[in-house]
Amino acid sequence: MAQAQNSISKIPVGILGATGMVGQQYISLLNDHPWFEVRFAAASPRSAGKKYSEAVAGRWQLTKTYAPHVGGIMVEDANDVSRAAEAFKKGECSFVFSALEMSKDETKALEEKYAAAGIPVISNASAHRWTPDVPVLIAEVNPGHTDIIPMQKKARGWDRGFIAVKPNCSIQSYMKPVHALAQAGYPAQRIVVVTMQAVSGAGYPGVPSLDVIDNVVPYIGSGEEEKSENEPLKIFGSIENGVFKNAEFPKIAAHCNRVPVTDGHSACITLEFADKKPSLDEIKAIWAAYKGLPQEADLPMAPRQPIIYREEENRPQPRKDRDTDKAMAVTVGRLRPSNVFDIRFFALSHNTVRGAAGGGILNAELLKYKGYLG
Ligand code: NAP
Where are the beta strands (DSSP E) in the chain? Predict the structure, then answer.
């Protein structure tokens, strides 16, 4: 009885791209979410018209399965916005998480159609990250960027719909450590980052096994390095006249590599401070004390401690540390001086959870907390 009441009071949500790598993580993470319940699923025309259980048969990638009611949901064609609009009218879809893998132009146009139909879109795709009035949110870092949403809606003539996105998975592991230091008065001036990115970051079936087993691929397509270098500047930027103005610093040089790890993107970071330089102990204390709005508001998906420092000289490691605190915490280690810049350290985050579906859910919780959803 308590469960039925709970279910009725939950906000019904939809997943676009529900059958893919990130879509499956959304379905799985929302299994027992206290606020949201999956009631609508859409994917490509290949999956449309099948029950969700049939659409993912033989390609479900996670150890945790989907809720029984999700297995029975009829998958819709994500390109047919009228189906979601109908579900919205019937109270079966209040907003959508977008985890589509289509061309940038197609994704952009489609997400705008959903927003124009009154359905808020919380997206994982890169299509809208450079749209000047769309916020790129990391809930702990720039929660104030949601302030642009009323301006976006007004400029587009959207009454209820809007678009908010999350950044590339490759930057998740070091954005919070860098933000924590900036907030404490130690902004970074220049960063060199070398990423080691998991194969699940390429979706399913993703990188061919013969390319990646016993190997490292020193290139990730779709502008991964440019995304890593530029997206932080929008996230650290400010809103001016209804659009985002990028920060000028830190300047970032990124090398992005694909490695034979299933989940968990790692990064080696070498950082130069703009001005004052904290001691290594001070940095560890700043990271340990770092909290953001998600922690203060006790949002369900928020890690209790967003940055965890491991003192062991051989940690963090993807297999041992990626699942820390619902796979939502960033784990760092090996902080030491650099004889080129000021400091260097190693950072890890789970790419399909913190870097994708979990980060998207946390953004939705932030938006609900601020009154933009439901
Ligand atoms: P994926 O495993 O390839 O899944 C793609 C999803 O999009 C599937 O549900 C697929 O449906 C659907 N789709 C493909 N073509 C379509 C079309 N023409 N019309 C409608 N739906 C279509 O990709 P993914 O790794 O989950 O990534 C999804 C999005 O999240 C991408 O934009 C990606 O860049 C982003 N992202 C991924 C990660 C990660 O770590 N994987 C991290 C951050 C962001 P079918 O199953 O029916 O083909």
Answer: 11-16, 36-43, 76-77, 95-98, 121-123, 163-165, 188-197, 238-240, 243-245, 251-258, 265-273, 307-310, 330-337, 343-349
